[in-house]
Design goal:
With about 140 residues, the protein is an alpha+beta fold. The protein contains four helices and five strands. The protein has a domain of about 100 residues: DOPA-like domains (Alpha-Beta Plaits), CATH 3.30.70.1240. The relative contact order is 0.18.
Length: about 140
Amino acid sequence: MKALLCAKIFILISFAFGAFGSGKWDLDTIHGFHFHSYFFQRNENSTRTALLLKQEVEKLIREVPRGPHPIGSFMTCCNATSAKKSLDFFMKNRRSLSVLIHPLTRYEVLDHSERAAWIGQSLPLDLTALSEHLEHEPTCELDS
């Protein structure tokens, strides 16, 4: 019986590894997350909602598209230990805004695509503005 159970587990693990292509699990440490809150900059109600949310998180608002982000957005950064509180906040307070959540690793394209999650409606991103592999781990430092 024990051998049969081990064989079943081996088959399940083999299938899982095969289903994920290379068979390698990604064990990179995630040190933080970005929460990008999107708003339609030409829509008064959407912009007002974004500004209210921005006031709550006291971060820089980008009123025009920047980098891979197709419309106005602002970014909030949190370390990995604050992720749950940040997720709770955005799930309860985003109203009609779309929020992109992605980890901070050296792999910007993967972080903004395969590793990303959306609260609300997803938006197309221009991933050509991102690096495949960064030399240094990104942090929650404010960029200009």
